[in-house]
Amino acid sequence: EMGLAMKLEPSCGQRMPRRPPYTRLVLATAAATWLCGHVALQLQPVFVAMAPANRLAPATGTLARARTAMFGHMMAARTTYEDLDPEVRELAERVNELLETGGARMWRTYCKTELKSQVFDPRRQSVENLRSFLDFYRPDLQELKRLFKIQPPSVYLFKQFIFDQDMSVNSQLTDVPPPWVRKFLNMYNEGDVYEVTVASAALQAEVKELTKDSTSYMAWHWKKFCFQRSFGVSMPDAVPAEIIKNFLKEYHAGSFGELAMTDDELTSQVNEVLRAGGGDAWRTFVDEQEVESMRNPKRFPAYIVRDFLSQIEFEDEDDNSGFTP
Q1: Mean per-residue pLDDT, 201-228
Q2: Which residues contact 146 (CB under 8 A, 6 or more apart)?
């Protein structure tokens, strides 16, 4: 035992060898890194709880950029496609396909310059941001939008074209396959589409005056009329003249009754459902109303919004009843 002690303990006056300064620095840095990572993991729920509802807002300031750098990789690792809203999941998958085929640099540049964001994981971007990038990335859609701006009746012709392909007229442009867009552009440029004769400026102005308040019941009647007669296109300068003439004829004949539109109270109830994760249910519901794509509850008659809220309440009761059909 004495011999063992002699081996383990330095003799009197003998100094233990000190670690070189760079070794001590490396060890200290490693310990500090581990401690910061441990603290970050413990505080992550606090940051998530304190974050605003739209966590995708552009980061500003040194602290915000540091927060993004610290938690970005952790949030990405914890976010799976199964956890995402179905629409976000679909769009994120499409963006990732582009990133894997040479679009990574363009995506990062787009996030920095257009979105003013340091969030490069498509799963953590909003539906609007993902769609805007897909629009930006596809030159065929840029050409189509320029055509829409220069020749408004081309919107009507394009909606008719996708309707003939058995595609919903409420489809987003990014959902239309590129070959279809190119085929339509070629047909239009070669004159293989019929010419749309629009209404006179006076008739267009009359419709605009009747529907200038987008939350009025006349705006609703116009949207409904256009969905049934003009593939959902409601711009007066884009639809055939007969559409406007027939609408005004029915209006002057008193065919469009007054409707109670959605008020602030009902709108607040819908917004509560949306904040609770009911966005997909709301989108599905409004797309079934046979009107051009709309999301603002105030643009719908009150009875339709009440119907939506009743369906949500009924589903909640079923979920809490313990009965599984």
Answers
A1: 96
A2: none
- Using a cut of 0.85, tell me whether the model's pTM lies above it: no
CA angle, residues 160, 164, 168, in degrees to nearest 5: 75
For residue 77 the two structure tokens come to 């690792």
Domain residue spans of the chain: 81-137, 139-189, 201-252, 264-320
**So what's the pLDDT on residue 35?**
62
Q: Are 178 and 142 in contact (CB under 8 A)?
A: no
Could you tell me if 287 and 293 are in contact, meaning their C-beta atoms sit under 8 angstroms apart? yes
Pull the structure tokens for residue 268: 């607040």
Does residue 200 contact residue 137 with C-beta atoms inside 8 Å? no
Q: Is 120 exposed, middle or buried (0-12, 13-18, 19+ CB in 10 A)?
A: middle
The letter for the amino acid at 23 is T
pLDDT category at 39 given cuts 50, 70, 90 is: low
Contacts 24+ apart (CB under 8 A), 88-96: 88/123, 88/125, 88/126, 88/127, 88/130, 89/123, 91/122, 91/127, 91/130, 91/131, 91/134, 91/174, 92/122, 92/123, 92/125, 92/130, 94/130, 94/134, 94/174, 95/122, 95/130, 95/133, 95/134, 96/122
Per-residue pLDDT tens over the stretch 142-163: 899 999 999 999 999 999 999 9
pLDDT > 90: percent of the chain = 43
- pLDDT the model gives residue 242: 98
Average pLDDT on 307-317 reads: 79
pLDDT of residue 83: 64
